[in-house]
Design goal:
Blueprint: H1 3-11, H2 18-32, H3 36-53, E1 72-77, E2 99-100, E3 103-105, E4 116-122, E5 126-134, E6 154-160, E7 168-175, E8 180-190, E9 193-197, E10 205-211, E11 223-231, E12 249-259, E13 267-271, E14 289-293
Parallel strand pairs: 1-4, 1-14
Antiparallel strand pairs: 2-4, 3-13, 4-5, 5-11, 6-7, 6-12, 7-8, 8-9, 10-11, 12-13, 12-14
Helix pairs in contact: 1-3, 2-3
Length: about 300
C-alpha cells in the first residue's frame, strides 16, 4: 500500500485508533519484511501517518515540549556556498548562533568538562552542523559502520521535523575517524524498550579536522572539529510535513561524547539541552529543544 493510499485509509477510518494502526503496521513489517529497502519504505509510511495525525506515537507522562517554553536555536540562512571540509572557512559561519554544551553527565567518575561549541546553518538543500570541541586526548576505537562510535570522541545529532516531542526521531552519530551510526529511533516503544532502526542509511557529508594524534596518550592534544551537510531529502518525506522556511521550527538535540583513554570505555557526555536523568539515555524526546529556520 502506498503512502498516499495509507493516509487516505487512515483519515477515512475514524474508528481505527492511531495506536492500533501503528501496532498493525509494525506487525506487518516483522512478518513480511525481508529486504532492507522494503523495511525503509514501510517505516517511512508508519512515521508519516503519525506525523500527519498530529499526535505522539505513545502516551507520554513527562512534560511535553511546548512552543514558547523550550529553548530555541535560531538557524541562520547560508547566503554563500558551503564546502564541507571541517574547517569553517566561509564568512557566513560568523553569522551562525554559537551554543555551548553546558550540561555534563556520567557521574561514576570525575568528568573532565572540556569546552565545546555548536553551530548550524541552512539553505534550500541542506542543514549544516559544525562541532568544535577542545580535547586533550583524541580517542576513537570504533571503525565499523552502524556500530558504537558513541563510545569514542563523537558528535551526535537527533531531530524530528515537527515542533513537538513525538517518540520518534532521526539520529546521526559519527566519531572523529568518521565511523558513522545513523538510525531512526522509536523511543520507549514497547515495555520501555527503545528501538533503533539501523536500516536507515541516508546519504550526507561529514568531514573532520583535528590538532593532535588519535589514540596516543603520551602527548597532549588540542581540538577536533566536525562539519555535516545533511540534505533535507535524507529525512525522506518528513521534511514535507513541516517544510524548512523562515519561522518553521523542528525539535532537536545535539550531544558530544568525550572519551579520553584508549583502553577505558568511560566517556563523559555533554548536551545542548538538559537531560536531567541520564539513566534514561540522551534520546528523551521531551527534553529536546527547538531549532527555528531564520531568513537572515
Amino acid at each position: 500500500m502506498s503512502t498516499n493510499n495509507l493516509l487516505k485509509f487512515y483519515h477515512s477510518s475514524p474508528g481505527y485508533s492511531v495506536i492500533s494502526l501503528f501496532s498493525f503496521l509494525i506487525k506487518q513489517i516483522i512478518m513480511k519484511c525481508k529486504k532492507m529497502d522494503f523495511i525503509r519504505q514501510r517505516i517511512e509510511v508508519i512515521c508519516l501517518v503519525f506525523l500527519s495525525a498530529g499526535v505522539p506515537l505513545l502516551a507520554q507522562t513527562e512534560k511535553q515540549l511546548v512552543i514558547g517554553q523550550q529553548p530555541v536555536y535560531r538557524v541562520s540562512r547560508a547566503s554563500e556556498p558551503i564546502t564541507v571540509d571541517g574547517r569553517r572557512d566561509e564568512a557566513i559561519w560568523n553569522n551562525a548562533e554559537v551554543q555551548s554544551f553546558n550540561y555534563f553527565y556520567r557521574g561514576d567518575k570525575p568528568v573532565e568538562k572540556q569546552n565545546s561549541e555548536f553551530r548550524m546553518l541552512w539553505d534550500d538543500e541542506n542543514i549544516y552542523l559544525f562541532y568544535e570541541c577542545e580535547d586533550t586526548s583524541l580517542t576513537a576505537r570504533e571503525t565499523n559502520f552502524d556500530a558504537r562510535p558513541y563510545l569514542d570522541d563523537c558528535a551526535e545529532f537527533f531531530c524530528v521535523p515537527v515542533p513537538d516531542s513525538i517518540y520518534m526521531h532521526f539520529g546521526f552519530e559519527i566519531n572523529i575517524t568518521k565511523a558513522a551510526y545513523d538510525y531512526i529511533v522509536l523511543w520507549r516503544y514497547y515495555n520501555n524498550r527503545t528501538i533503533f532502526l539501523r536500516s536507515y542509511n541516508p546519504s550526507y557529508k561529514v568531514e573532520v579536522t583535528y590538532e593532535g594524534t588519535i589514540n596516543d596518550e603520551s602527548d597532549k592534544d588540542k581540538i577536533w572539529r566536525m562539519e555535516f551537510a545533511i540534505p533535507f531529502t535524507a529525512l525522506s518525506d518528513f521534511h514535507l510535513v513541516s517544510r524548512p522556511k523562515p519561522g518553521v521550527r523542528w525539535a532537536f538535540q545535539a550531544v558530544r561524547q568525550d572519551r579520553n583513554f584508549v583502553n577505558d570505555r568511560f566517556r563523559s557526555t555533554s548536551t545542548l539541552f538538559p537531560i536531567y536523568d541520564i539513566r534514561k539515555d540522551v534520546h528523551q524526546p521531551a527534553r529536546f529543544g527547538l531549532l527555528e529556520f531564520s531568513g537572515k
